[in-house]
Amino acid sequence: MAQDSVGLSSDYQFWMQKVSTWDQASTVETQQDTCLHLPRFQEFLRQMYEALKEMDSNTVIERFPTIGQLLAKTCRNPFILAYDESQKILIWCLCCLINKEPQNSGDSKLNSWTRVWPV
Predict the structure, then answer these.
(1) One GO CC annotation, please (predicted)?
(2) What is the full DSSP assignment across 22-88?
(3) Does the predicted model carry a pTM greater than 0.85?
């Protein structure tokens, strides 16, 4: 499990950088890059979901302090959302961050990240 955690953390940094690049540019090259990397990104989201569902809110915030940014940028990318599988996994990840009855500041912080922002 520790090795998986290290791998997921390094993958997280790679995908955070990639999603940020995709979010900032709308060139044909960026669109092609998104589509090229989509299968690997979907696998990363699956792994992220598996990790998130096992973590409490404080651990999520400690290990992935920018998870809200990553998921928000993913939600804004039409090339990622065009695939049902991506949408499904993304929703699973978001659901891991929601707590109907927050018990601590970590729960409240994660809930605030999942609120719908005006477009």
Answers:
(1) Fanconi anaemia nuclear complex
(2) HHH--SHHHHHHHHHHHHHHHHHHHHHHHHHTTS-HHHHHHH-TTHHHHHHHHHT-HHHHTSHHHHH
(3) no
